[in-house]
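Annex B. Sample input.
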Amino acid sequence: MKRLSLKAIQAFVAVLLVALLATGCGGGNEDPAASQADNEKLKVGFVYIGPVNDAGWTQAHDEARKYLMAELPYVDASDYVENVPENPTEAERVITQLVEQGNKIIFTTSFGYMDPTIKVAQKYPDVTFLHCSGYQTAPNVGAYFGRMYQARYLSGLVAGKATKTNLIGYVAAMPIPEVIRGINAFTLGVQKVNPDAQVKVVWTNTWVDAAIEKDAAIALLDAGADVIAQHQDSASPQQAAEEAGKFGIGYNSDMSKMAPKATMTSPVWNWGPYYVDTVKAIKEGTWQSTLTAGSLTYWGGLKEGTVDLAPFGPMVSEEVKQLVEQERERIVSGEWDVFTGPIKDQSGAVKVAEGQVMTDDEILNMNWFVQGVVGSVE
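Annex B, continued. Sample output.
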């Protein structure tokens, strides 16, 4: 019998070891498909009301989407759909499409998406949905927003100090509590520094339509307003103010880039940290849709950094900047909040007694205007 050489034996052993490893020798039962799944990224989808370059609401969310991917390398948030109308059928179709594309977490970022989000969520219990600015929740649906009224109040201080005609125009989207409480907070800031000033509201009944928003701003300027504030997604009200040689208060993101001679500051959103914290909690299995503020899962403010003011323009004095900082500290420290009495409504009736603080539920469902607002909630 022919004896094998040492080299041949070594080659045989090497082949045997490779074969054993390939068949899972040593007690391993790893499933190649499972291994591949572990390496797949967590897909997160977004639904937007406007374009990602609107310099406003949608852009603020889209910047946060990019922040999410930068902070969490295991996340793929490349699926987003722009310009989705608040039509129940269309919104439901888009949300469903994102689910079918494999997204396990979906953020729907406008009030009108609430009912479609809840409806789709019932069909896909293994997917987590987060709806912005609404109030309905479910085991796999959270509702999130920010205490923008705090930043609105601070911007009202700036506007109240700037007006010479004592008439400030406010281009407003929809007559819903979200917008109404923002107008009220802004007006409380205005009247703190200028009790003679009034805030005149014009409703556009649209979140984003640059032409309609600009026409509304022009009408307010023609009525004598010399500062234009807004709850709208485009910068066209600020541009109208600049063209008229007046000042403005933007919204959503820093609108001074669009109207540098007019925009004194803008209440702005910073959704990035919230998105990161939420996605991490969902992945780790610690997220719950339990209510923490009225009917919201999350409601962060100045303290959490969810809302803030954009940098001041050169037309804002140091005196005003210091006043804003003082009021900010009162809010962040918890010493005081915006809707603390005494607060009167348009008729002069006391709605919040002196020393009383409105509850989160009362603030979230606000449907009346404070004294100093000119206009109707309808």
